[in-house]
Every structure is written in C-alpha cells, then in structure tokens.
Amino acid sequence: MLSDDGKEWWLGTFRTKFNSYSESGKYCKEELFWRLLMEGFTDDDEYEPPFAYWQEFNEEIVEPKLYEINGSLGEYKSLYNEVKYWKRERAKILNKINDLSEQFYQKYEPYIKEGTFTDSNYTTDNEYYWAGVSVLDDSCEPQVSYTFKVIDLAPLEIFRDDYTFEIADTTYIEDIDFFGVNSHTGFPNREKVIISSIEYNLDEPKSNSITLQNYTS
Question: What is the value of pTM for the model shown?
C-alpha cells in the first residue's frame, strides 16, 4: 500500500500527465483516463495512446476489461440481487397474509365452529351429502341461551305495566362477542330471543332468574 507521500506523488504525476496529454487534442480524454489507469504511465513525454477515438478504445479495451473484471461476478451479483429482491417481496406478501388472517380471525372467530356429522342411515354418497348440507343450514344459526338473575317488580303497582314478563314472551339481546357489531351503523347486532323459563326464589326474590334462548324446543 502506498504511503501518503507515495499517493501524493502518484496523483500529482497522474494529474500532470493527464492534463498535458489532454491539452494536445490528439486523443479523447476518456481514452487517456482509462489508459493511464489500466496501463499505468511513464515519464516519457512522447507517450501516445494507440487509439484516436473513444469508441474504438471502448470496444477493444474498456468493455473487454470490464467484462473480465465483472463478467461472472457481475452475473452472480445480478442474480443474487434478484433473489434478494424477490425474498423481500415474498416477506411483504406473507406479512400481508398474516395481517389479513389476524383480522379475519378477530372478526369471524366467534362465528366459526367446527364439527363432525355422521349418520349411518344413508347408503349413497349423494344422500349423505345433502343430509350434511341440511345439517349445515341448521348449524349456521347456532342455538344459544342466557340465564339472568332478575328482580320481579311486577307486584309493585307502579311497575306492573312495564315490568311484567311471562314464558314465551319475546325480546332482543345484544352479545358483541357472539353476534358482533353492525358494520354500517356501528351498533351491536340484536338477536331475537324468547323467554323459555322463569325460576322464582321465594326466600330471596332478588335471586329470581329467567332463561332466554333464540330457538324454540
């Protein structure tokens, strides 16, 4: 490796030769620059590059030299960069898939249930298939029930008209975790339910309970 003094001499000599040759106007600067870099230079003031035009010099000297230096290595580097690029694109797509899967899971997981349908009464594939479709149609509307503790206010005259309930009465229930939220209004979806049973606790009336369900037996 050149010392600082050596570098200074080299650059100074290169600059002097380059300027002196360039000022003569006998050859192009590009040819001279490349020629000095690849062949070196001497103190001979009569040095004359063998090419008069850059195009000739480029075709016979520069391009073959660049291919020799960068040919196979350049090809490998190009393929390596292409593989690297597509790996990054693949990672982006996988990240998008993961994000969409997570969003899908969070939104629809409460509604997705797995089960197995078996029935030995069917002897053909076609009958078995349509029986499964029928079961799926029923299963896509799951049967749910809720039990609440309530205080029966009906015996109090001021509440009698508003807080009287009987078996088979219908009402609505909101369950965000199960029925979700309406994407248009932003309000919870409402499920119609029926009062299927009422239990009275005579010793502790505030522990009375009612059961609601979205299906009829």
Answer: 0.39
